[in-house]
Each structure stands twice: as structure tokens, then as C-alpha cells.
Design goal:
Strand order of the largest sheet: 8-5-1-2-3-12
InterPro entries: CcO_II (IPR045187), CcO_II-like_C (IPR002429), COX_ARM (IPR010514), Cupredoxin (IPR008972), CuRO_UO_II (IPR034227), Cyt_c_oxidase_su2_TM_dom (IPR011759), Cyt_c_oxidase_su2_TM_sf (IPR036257), Cyt_o_ubiquinol_oxidase_su2 (IPR006333)
Structural class: alpha+beta
Largest sheet: 6 strands, mixed
Distance between the termini: 50 Å
CATH class of the largest domain: Mainly Beta
Order of helices and strands: HHHEEEEEEEEEEHEHEEH
Strand content: 15-25%
Radius of gyration: 26 Å
CATH topology of the largest domain: Immunoglobulin-like
Helix content: 25-40%
Number of strands: 13
Family: Belongs to the cytochrome c oxidase subunit 2 family.
CATH superfamily of the largest domain: Cupredoxins -  blue copper proteins
Number of domains: 2
Main location: membrane
Membrane topology: Multi-pass membrane protein
CATH architecture of the largest domain: Sandwich
GO molecular function: copper ion binding; cytochrome bo3 ubiquinol oxidase activity; cytochrome-c oxidase activity; oxidoreductase activity, acting on diphenols and related substances as donors, oxygen as acceptor
Length: about 280
């Protein structure tokens, strides 16, 4: 009884968890959710019959059931072997097919729609995220603002160690690596604030490496850009050198201007480093 009550209490605590990928806010996240739910249903086709059969066998072959036949010499059944091996084999085939088709359909490098997307350049640092809007000429730290209903094309890299960019409700976790670029395309279909995070350990400041993604109306996005341009900070070489220094739990802020070609320079300069180690808080 104590175990049952403990389980009920733990289940109640789960009500405070965010639905994340189950509450998809865009086509990519919706595709990821469908893959996960389809895979879950296929695995239930094995789990549920096995549990049911276990309970049925335990009940039928109980000591008090005189109708159950005792067969100590039984060793083989072709029909049972066919059942035992065919169901898992079919499950693996279906799971593989769903993963193959779904992962190719949701290729992060594939553009969404035919309209020009919003271009954003993303840089992972210790321990914060830098977002550069090359067409608008502004940048932000730990805060990504996008217009809802418009495709977003992200070009990502790392200025330090390998990291991972993930916004569960918008979909497709993708890695960032120094000296390399990766691409991610997604779209927010409704306005709202979505939580983003680093999904790859990158040192002692990793737990606080969170970001906020605000999907707003086109008018609100235009006003945000104008507000960023009215700020005081400029992201030039000196400002970037300061940004490159490790820092934790950084509050979001913006830059009103960005040095031309900064993202490509980050990719090029980070690629020349030969030692990439995560800072562990002990000076290593």
C-alpha cells in the first residue's frame, strides 16, 4: 500500500512538468511527435500482449487449477516459435521504417515552404547563446524572437566546445561544432514563448544555458527589431571578445549593430583552434 501511495504521489508531481514535444507548435515538432507516438504504439503491440500472457499463465497454472496439464517433457512448438519471433521482427521493421521515413521527411536542412525565411545565425558560447540577424543587422543573447507563421532558417556553429541547440516545441535538436556550420529549419505556427536549452554537456555552466524563443506577430517582430536598433551596444570585435569569456546565467540583451561577416569569422577562427575542452570550474 505504501508503494502504491508513493507511486500516486510521484504521478501527481509529474503534473508540473511541461508537455514540451507533445505540445508541438510547428510542423517539425509535430512530425517528431508523430514519430514518437507511432513508435510507442508499435512497442505497445509487444508489451501489452506479453504482460497479458504473463498474468494469464500465472493464473491458469496456479496450484489450485486441476484443469491445467503438467507437461514436464514439453520442449518445442513451431506455432509458438513463429509467434515469438515474428511479432518482434515485424516491430523492428515497422520501427525502422518509421524512423527512416520520418527522419528524412523532417530533415533539418530542408527549407519549409517557398517564401523567403527569416535568416538567423546562431553561436553557442560558454555558457550562452548568440543570435545574429544578418538581414536586420541586430543581435541578441539568450533570446530569439521570430515572427509566427514564417519559416526560420538557422545557421549554427560553436565558438568553443561542441554543444546542442534544442527547442522541444519547435523541433529538431541539432549539434553545434567549432569550425563547422549546421543548418536547421523550423516554423512556429502560433504565438507564444517556447523554452530552449542546451542538450549537450559543455562544462560547469551548462545547467544555466537556457534561452527563450518568442514567436510574435509580424508587427511585434518589426517593433522588436526597432527596439534593438535603438539600444546602445554594438557587437564588434571588442564586444565579441568580452562575450567569448565564460559567464553563467546571462540575462537576455540585444546589440543594435553587428560587425559585418562576424559569423563567418567566428567559424573560421574557431576552426583554427586545436584544443577544445569543456571548462570544468577548476581552471582546466
Amino acid at each position: 500500500m505504501i508503494r502504491l501511495l508513493s507511486a500516486v504521489v510521484l504521478l501527481g508531481a509529474l503534473s508540473g512538468c511541461e508537455p514540451a514535444i507533445l505540445d508541438s507548435a510547428g510542423p517539425v515538432a509535430a512530425s517528431d511527435r508523430h514519430i514518437m507516438l507511432d513508435a510507442f504504439a508499435i512497442m505497445l503491440a509487444i508489451v501489452v500482449p506479453v504482460i497479458a500472457a504473463t498474468l494469464a499463465f500465472a493464473w491458469w497454472f496456479r496450484a489450485g487449477n486441476s484443469r491445467a496439464k503438467y507437461r514436464p517433457d514439453w520442449a518445442y512448438s513451431g506455432q509458438l516459435e513463429l509467434l515469438v519471433w515474428s511479432v518482434p521482427t515485424l516491430a523492428v521493421i515497422f520501427l525502422g521504417g518509421i524512423a527512416w521515413i520520418g527522419s528524412h521527411a523532417a530533415d533539418p536542412a530542408t527549407p519549409i515552404g517557398s517564401d523567403p525565411p527569416l535568416r538567423v545565425e546562431v553561436v553557442s558560447l560558454d555558457w550562452k547563446w548568440l543570435f545574429i540577424y544578418p538581414d536586420q543587422g541586430v543581435a541578441s543573447v539568450n533570446h530569439l524572437v521570430v515572427p509566427a507563421g514564417r519559416a526560420v532558417s538557422l545557421r549554427l556553429t560553436s565558438a568553443t566546445v561542441m554543444n546542442s541547440f534544442f527547442v522541444p516545441q519547435l523541433g529538431s535538436q541539432i549539434y553545434t561544432m567549432a569550425g563547422m556550420t549546421t543548418r536547421l529549419n523550423w516554423r512556429a505556427d502560433r504565438t507564444g514563448r517556447y523554452r530552449g536549452l542546451s542538450a549537450n554537456y559543455s562544462g560547469s555552466g551548462f545547467p544555466g544555458m537556457a534561452l527563450a524563443v518568442d514567436a510574435v506577430t509580424p508587427d511585434q517582430f518589426a517593433r522588436w527589431i526597432q527596439g534593438a536598433k535603438a539600444g546602445a551596444q554594438i557587437l564588434d570585435g571588442a564586444a565579441y571578445a568580452g562575450l567569448l569569456r565564460p559567464s553563467r546565467n546571462v540575462a537576455p540583451y540585444t546589440y543594435r549593430a553587428v560587425a559585418p561577416g562576424l559569423f563567418d569569422a567566428i567559424v573560421r577562427d574557431a576552426g583554427t583552434r586545436t584544443a577544445q575542452t569543456a571548462v570544468d570550474g577548476r581552471g582546466n
